[in-house]
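Quick one, tokens below. Sequence please?
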């Protein structure tokens, strides 16, 4: 059996939330424990494609790395590094940008969402974000990319760019990466609106559970989470047209490792006043050790910085020859 090579990352835009954890991070740990070769980066170059606080960026980067480790990513088994510490990502991006059609980038829903109504004022970096993401993946010839459902379209584009390069230069230089959309909660929704994705950048902090929230805050957010007046259904079919109920049941299932059917067998016919406290207990029991470990790690940033430096050394060793080879295939003087 060939080993899978896994690459994934998160942006240091803000604190990670339950969606990032259940949609991606929790699965990263599973893949690491399965024995895959794992590379997990903090994608800071992506984070600066929107307005950000330069005074906070370095610390926000450490906080994301701390969250990875606290959630179970083990630096002795997986490489943890910062994207901007590996120059090959930006170099390869330029090369790939020359073979990416603007029309394809214009179809990316994340660009449309983040650029908002005033597309003309959006930065080139935000527009080109998926090309940098393709470089992040292709530079390591990653075979699998564990992401939440929202990143599927970007992954398709990475595959497309790899295929374009290979066809244009008559080579099999790049592997086409497979999206790895795993687990019960591939798209965790906002606690305030079950039709919107739980997101770091959503205005209301009550819409998400952050990994740094304490037990009281988690309880408050779940207690106040939007629901409908009906009791919980007996089967998943009964969640149809009830996005908020479906979201809370999905979160419960993902945290407890049960199927949604099993959750509804236990809570079907019960009111939210019974279900919500059970969800609070489960979420607190699951997240409290992660939060405590994160806070511990952030108490001495030199340990995180050392882990990130070692990770960058290893990533650079892999990335630099790949970029060099790409230049050669494209006919550059070397
Ligand atoms: N709500 C979600 N449900 C499941 N998975 C999710 N992911 C994000 N939101 C959810 C997954 O988390 C990983 C890291 O995401 P990112 O840091 O690249 O940012 P994002 O995808 O843009 O997520 P956010 O939290 O919504 O950030 P902002 O608000 O800054 O854009 C990815 O694998 C993603 O799929």
């Amino acid at each position: 059996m060939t080993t899978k090579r896994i690459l994934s990352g998160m942006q240091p835009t803000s604190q990670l939330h339950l969606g990032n954890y259940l949609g991606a991070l929790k699965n990263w740990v599973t893949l690491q424990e399965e024995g895959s070769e794992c590379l997990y980066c903090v994608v800071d170059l992506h984070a600066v494609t929107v307005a950000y606080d330069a005074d906070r960026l370095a610390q926000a980067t450490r906080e994301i790395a701390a969250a990875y480790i606290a959630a179970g990513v083990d630096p002795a088994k997986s490489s943890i590094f910062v994207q901007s510490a590996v120059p090959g990502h930006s170099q390869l991006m330029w090369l790939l940008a020359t073979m990416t059609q603007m029309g394809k980038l214009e179809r990316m829903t994340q660009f449309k969402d983040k650029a908002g109504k005033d597309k003309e004022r959006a930065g080139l970096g935000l527009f080109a974000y998926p090309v940098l993401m393709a470089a992040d993946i292709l530079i390591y010839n990653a075979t699998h990319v564990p992401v939440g459902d929202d990143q599927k379209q970007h992954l398709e584009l990475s595959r497309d760019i790899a295929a374009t390069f290979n066809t244009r230069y008559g080579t099999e230089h790049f592997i086409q990466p497979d999206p790895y959309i795993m687990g019960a909660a591939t798209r965790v929704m906002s606690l305030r609106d079950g039709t919107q994705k739980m997101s770091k950048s959503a205005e209301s902090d009550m819409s998400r559970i952050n990994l740094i929230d304490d037990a009281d805050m988690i309880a408050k957010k779940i207690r106040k989470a939007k629901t409908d007046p009906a009791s919980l259904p007996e089967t998943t079919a009964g969640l149809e047209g009830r996005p908020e109920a479906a979201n809370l049941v999905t979160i419960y299932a993902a945290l407890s490792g049960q199927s949604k059917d099993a959750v509804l067998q236990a809570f079907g016919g019960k009111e939210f006043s019974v279900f919500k406290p059970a969800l609070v207990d489960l979420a607190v029991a699951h997240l409290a050790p992660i939060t405590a470990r994160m806070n511990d790690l952030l108490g001495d940033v030199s340990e995180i910085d050392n882990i990130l430096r070692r990770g960058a050394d290893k990533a650079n060793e892999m990335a630099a020859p790949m970029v060099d080879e790409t230049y050669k295939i494209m006919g550059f003087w070397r």
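The chain has a mean pLDDT of 95. DSSP finds 13 helices and five strands in the chain.
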